[in-house]
Amino acid sequence: MIGNGDNMNFSYELKHVCAQTGARYGVLHTPHGDVETPMFMPVGTLATVKYLSPEELLGAGSGVILSNTYHLWLRPGPNVIATMGGLHRFMNYPGPILTDSGGFQVFSLSEKRKITEEGVEFRSHLNGDRLFLSPEKSIELQNAFGADIIMSFDECPAYPSTYEYMKQSVERTLRWAKRGQDAHQNPNQALFGIVQGGDYEGLRSLSAQSLAEMDFPGYSIGGTSVGEDKPTMYRMIDYSVRYLPTNKPRYLMGVGSIDAILEGVARGIDMFDCVLPTRIARHGALMTSQGRVNIRDAQYEMDERPIDPECDCETCKHYSRAYLRHLYKCEEGFGKRLLSLHNIRFLIRLTEQIRQAIQEDRFGDFHADLVRRYGFDQPGSRGF
RNA sequence: GGAGGGGUAGCGAAGUGGCCAAACGCAGAUGACUGUAAAUCAUUUCCCAUCGGGUUCGGCGGUUCAAAUCCGUCCCCCUCCA
Question: Is A100 assigned a catalytic role?
């Protein structure tokens, strides 16, 4: 069996734990290079981070980027990607790539689905085709795509779910993880197990401990950012992390708001991914050191300042809010590109600062400063 | 000069006696977006205001319990004929 915790082509090196907090600084060694953690991974569902070129992503300091098994399965299909030399060559991204298993799509975009022990039957969102995804099928697809890091096929249950439902779901997802592990054959791909269990500590610990016993090269925390409030999410993270081995990376799936990244890092999370920065950028919302900026707002009509005076991204170096607002209102693609680039760079730079702070044993102070700056501790704050 | 059509909120456009402060689209304003079915979604745009009230449908004058809707008249626009 290949793809277990001793995978020779992939490893995690824990370099330093912040003396103030449980935050970890580490390095992920992958077949496509080493990347430092904690890190933020931009999402490129369809083998493209919408509007951004790989060159721009790398310029913004990207390490790992994501793509999606379900979407690539439907288009262009595994044969095309495999024939074209795998995902890296196909999309011309030289760095590490991670693919999600498709589990999330099955549970997020198909209301009529049938879950059985074997897998999930559901409908294509494109044409209604009857589809069937199983742990083995997901691995087979991900093997064909060739990402450096791949995910177990899991169920991402709704929040809230009853304890009874969550229990049987968690147990089945564990069995699926084992099946995926058995099916996985590519030594250049690290298969992560995914912790589920909602906000039930007993189920989170069952999930995490069982996965840890299976010895994966990394562990994902799933089932978060599905409608629960922030304190609940943080509790879910606590319930999961405390049962995971310290010598393997922890990936908090689908989390990318500033406050949640900070809280995750404080709890020992190493990897984050999220569509948030790119999606809200396309919709005109920017993450800045001063707080959130909606570039469409009339107050920026003649504002010659950059989005964020503290930002070093190409957008902030060269373009005014007034121009970006103009592009946004005219629905110009160039505007979406510039705004996406800024938000991506903002989060990546945030993680650079986080890594620095951890290495200097001051992440607690760094975190507290940002909480104060953004008012995350103020009543009514939703974070962002 | 003759015949016909038309003037509705920032623009376009429904409505042709009461359920109309007036559909809908655009434009404007504000907010949202968390393992991407997302260039999407929500709210809002006559005036004052919390309920609620006050002024609107080219102008003026009528009919009616009630008019954007019916009548008279005036102004303006478009098409065709001379």
Answer: yes
**Angle between helices A258-266 and A333-359 in degrees, nearest 10:** 20
What is the tens place of the pLDDT at every residue in A94-133? 999 999 999 999 878 777 899 999 999 999 999 999 999 9
> Can you give the C-alpha Rg of chain A in angstroms?
20
Nucleotides of strand B lying closer than 7 angstroms to a protein CB: 27-41
The spacing between the Cα labelled CA in A284 and the C1' in B25, in angstroms, equals 23
User: Mean of the pLDDT values across residues A221-234?
Assistant: 94
Distance A333 CA to B41 C1' (A): 20
- Please write down the HEC assignment for all residues of A78-143: HHHHHHCCCHHHHHCCCCCEEEECCHHHHHHCCCCCEECCCCEEEECCCCCCEEEECHHHHHHHHH
Residue A24 near residue A38, CB atoms below 8 Å: yes
Chain position carrying tokens 């990207």? A62
This model of the complex carries an ipTM of 0.93
Q: Give the C-alpha separation, A54 to A281, whole Å.
A: 18
List the structure tokens of A113. Answer: 């689905």
| Nucleotide with C1' nearest the A46 CA | B36
From the candidates A259, A270, A273, A308, give the one annotated as an active-site residue: A273
Contact A20, A357 (CB under 8 A): no
Cα gap A243→A207, rounded to integer Å: 9
Integer Cα distance of A222 and A159 in angstroms = 12
Q: Is pLDDT above 60 for A218?
A: yes
Which nucleotide is at minimal CA–C1' distance from A126?
B37
A113 CA to B64 C1' distance (Å): 62
Q: Give the SS3 label for residue A213.
A: helix
Q: Is A273 a catalytic residue?
A: yes
Q: How far is the CA of A31 from the C1' of B7 (A)?
A: 73
pTM over 0.90? The answer is yes
Q: Which nucleotide is nearest to A382 (CA to C1')?
A: B32
Given A34, A100, A129, A238, the catalytic residue = A100
